[in-house]
């Protein structure tokens, strides 16, 4: 039995016939588990038209009405979080407990957005001039869109739409075509929560659907999360079409371990952050920077831990790491194992050995030692369970390495030296920093975003920057006559 995933437009599943479809896989078996409709330009038009029609009424819904829908959505998300986690695992491959973790982090953004009445307070200044008041109001933009990656099919969309919708916008989501079903479950929950039809829509597809959104005259803002080449393309294309845009890209996150660090803590952190979700996290640690003489002792501890890790199907409770998302992606990730050896690195743990049986997209945790910055495994974002170890002599050398990298999403330092940690936090050219914390994903009330090639645009996701992104400010200057009149004055208005 295979499933069929279609668009969600105007509060219900789409009833049209798609001209193109894609396959959806179960990555643990390698078997096609369903098909997903790919939207044409006119299908995207239909979704944007529904969102546009829903906008005036939703914009004018009171803050309390909007917050109440969000509270109901939050309750339903909690009720069905296990089911949502299973849907994610079945198409992405990550273990169910990890998928539940992503739902929980997305839920936090919904909870943040429940406070929208407070977040949308503007400013007010009385008597900016005699008997003249000035105030600012935050207003929604209209139809906004989110284009999201495969690796967090629930959490990343939830960085966007709870806040966009709470601010009074209407939303069109274009999730990854590799794991499209989580978005449909979310759409059903919105409908059950009482969100008016057309406020939240989903179109599936590929570049055709994305380009149609980027070029659509009625789309006012674009939020994107995905790889850096596509993020750059989205940023340039959306901006050229006059849209507000935030485009979060790829990553190469370094974890620096200083000689005075707690090595058991650092080894646990490197394994958790390197191999959790098979390394398919934008905040995964992919480069371990060992400041000598720490490397040998640290690697022994990591190897001990890795040897016991259980790779297996995401829905098997004994599995700690699932398969990769597609066969092509697994093959590409595995190709770095061969190229790194050819280029002079050492395969300390070879993840091609001891794979689970069957045709799943398997690769076990891999540790590559003696990596240098000129190697492909260092230069590229591998996005798999591959941890590269670069040995350096000093703290300064470690800092220089992190800063020279084109990406700037996340980084971490492990040390017991407060001064070193503080200098790292102060100087490093990276957007999200962990101190003895390997995956420093900001809480919902802070904002998520990297620097350099990890983000195009100036707004990070969720938190107050999310509210800023999904609203525009109107400044009003008002005078109620009472009973003095200023008379004719052609001079530029000044206060007095
Ligand atoms: P991707 O860039 O291939 O796809 C992301 C989205 O863009 C998908 O919806 C896809 O359909 C669409 N897309 C793909 N090719 C396109 C094209 N040529 N034109 C228009 N649209 C296109 O990314 P992915 O493989 O789904 O996700 C993994 C990537 O996402 C990694 O690079 C990872 O680091 C990154 N990521 C970044 C963050 C972050 O916060 N910075 C978070 C999660 C994932």
TrEMBL record:
It is an enzyme of class 1 (oxidoreductase). The keyword NAD applies. Pfam families: Aldedh. SUPFAM superfamilies: ALDH-like. Residues 14-476 form the Aldehyde dehydrogenase domain. Keywords: NAD, Oxidoreductase. It comes from the Bacteria. NCBIfam families: MMSDH. This is methylmalonate-semialdehyde dehydrogenase (CoA acylating). It comes from Actinocorallia aurantiaca.
